[in-house]
Amino acid sequence: MLSFQPPAVGEEEIAAVSETLRSGWLTTGPRAAELERRFAEYLEADHVLAVASGTAALHLSLLAIGVGPGDEVITSPITWPATANVIVHAGATPVFADVREADLNLDPDAVAALVTPRTKAILPVHLAGQPCDLEPLWALDLPVVEDAAHAAESRYRGRKLGGLSDATCFSLYATKNIAAGEGGLIATNRADVAAAVESLRLMRRGDGSLYDIVVPGYKANLSDVLAAIALVQLGKVERHAEIRARHVALYDEAVAELEGIEPLARDPRDTHALHLYVVRIRAEGAGATRDSYQRALAEEKIGTSIHFLPVHLLTAYRERFPDQAPLPVAERGGAEVLSLPLSPAHSDDDVADAIDALLRVHARFTA
Ligand SMILES: Cc1ncc(COP(=O)(O)O)c(C=O)c1O
Description:
The protein is of the alpha/beta class. It has two domains: 11-235, Aspartate Aminotransferase, domain 2 (3-Layer(aba) Sandwich), CATH 3.40.640; 237-366, Aspartate Aminotransferase, domain 1 (Alpha-Beta Complex), CATH 3.90.1150. The protein is built from 14 helices and twelve strands. The strands form four sheets. It has a four-stranded mixed β-sheet with strand order 1-9-8-5, with helices on both faces. Strands 3-2-4 form a three-stranded parallel β-sheet, covered by helices on one side. Strands 10-11-12 form a three-stranded antiparallel β-sheet. It is globular and about 75 Å long. The two termini are 26 Å apart. The structure holds pyridoxal-5'-phosphate. The site of pyridoxal-5'-phosphate has 14 residues, from helix 3 and helix 4.
């Protein structure tokens, strides 16, 4: 079976973990601090804070900008459920806006139409690594917290994500472009947001046996063992991006010939992080549904994934927010998206195998 997104770790990551274990620092320490410094440099952002996950990054960012009970936060339905879950965790209500047909990122007009006096923040998601159109979201004059879990290398109109909005949240989860297994990073140019996250992520002890806390914090700090892996991965970010770019070009060329199968749009004005290669399978042209394609590819031993099923249709959200209006673009997109294998751990031959299998399946379904 060709794995969908295997981790690209090797001897350097193994050595970095051993060295950390030998150093005696298992929890947050000098490596987490170095990761924050290096990532801030990489993102050209004033502050970076390392936390336990991308989910924690989003949660603490919302709390840091003051989201709480009674507030609404407008977000995308085409995302991993964590994006909406953290709004619920903060005691606020997620409001799902529809997405754009071309790239399934938030539609700024749909967002503007949902703003009410209760709207406290906008939480856009840069799906697959394609930056959202941020300008019209900033123009709404509300705090913006970006979900950049897929977008470590992305640039919006030439500018690195990280210091652009009130807070930008990255994930170091096992499949991500910079992978530590688990972990998250918050970038911000707002000193007050950085200070709030700092006091929320960990209860800090004072000197000696005395300590005090100013807020009841979360245990959301990043361990040095994981930070050590992330540091090595950050050093490889460009090399890994080149491999994925080569594989994306191979997919683009093959998919261009297949009726009913089309990749999500990539805006040439932006830098796409190429975290996922998502195609839409339109049954009318492709001869079968996305689900049939996914099953047929699995039979051909090709692992695929789905990014994403619309969050508002998942049980927890249907039950808790039953009055949600239909979101036609997201709902159709969610039924058609399929992500093909993409990882710097794959060889060109692996991608050729995935493409051959896709061509065979397409030929069968359209015969
Ligand atoms: C779009 C998106 N947002 C948030 C997350 C949550 O990140 P984490 O798994 O690091 O908590 C993920 C995935 O893992 C994601 O894909």
